[in-house]
Amino acid sequence: MSIIKIDMNSPEFQEEMQKTIRFTDKVNHQFGWVYNPQEEVNEGVQMGLARNKMMYSKRFCPCFMVEVVDEKPRSVEDRICPCKPAIEREIPEDGVCHCGIFCTPEYAANKRAEMGMEEVAHTHSRGLSKEEAILLLNQKEIDGDELISLLEAKKLGMVDFKLVDVREHMEWQMGHINGADKLVPTSSFFAALDDAKLDKEENIILYCHVGSRSAHCARILGDMGYKKVGNLTYGIVSYGGEIER
What we know:
By secondary structure, the protein is of the alpha/beta class. It has helices spanning about 10-30, 40-55, 85-95, 105-115, 130-135, 145-155, 170-175, 190-195, 210-225; strands at about 35, 65-70, 70-75, 100-105, 140, 160-165, 175, 180-185, 205, 230, 245. A hairpin with a 2-residue loop joins strand 2 and strand 3.
């Protein structure tokens, strides 16, 4: 199975995107939710829902892996938007769904206040030492700040690793982390993994939109014998470094 590519500028995708926006508008109205104040989160999720609708005829949650079993696609944890875990647990308990698009009004208000307090520029007090970089690289979960530091350490020759994007081709085109080495989309994971020719002994860091697909892929790689796999815990939406578009 080759990498599936959908042209986000095509009339077919743009039409599906408009249908998806109307769909998410309706979901918010039905449940009394609101959109995330971070517009890039909403747009990314809406594009993922539109892509999955075109690929699988269902609006599978774009933050979870979709597997095809006996020629029938199914989402890990049966996530079809608006998904049952979001309705029953995530939004009542956390104020926001796992993908981040649907929020309670209270969560959105707090998020806007938090965003207003954050500095626009991302700064570091100091770089990592080689020993710190090596220790950090061997962690199973890393955050956005830590990945920025590791990419800086990589440029300085302190450590070496492959940064692998497991989102879809269309998401990669929209924007990917500057320094990403490979694209291994979850929709064609095993074929793309063969093409990527990753060494089972090298350090690998995976990332996706919010960290779910990459965490799932990290478990798969571990089962396949890859020994040093890390995950960007909260995905590209949490990354404050340079994005290449």
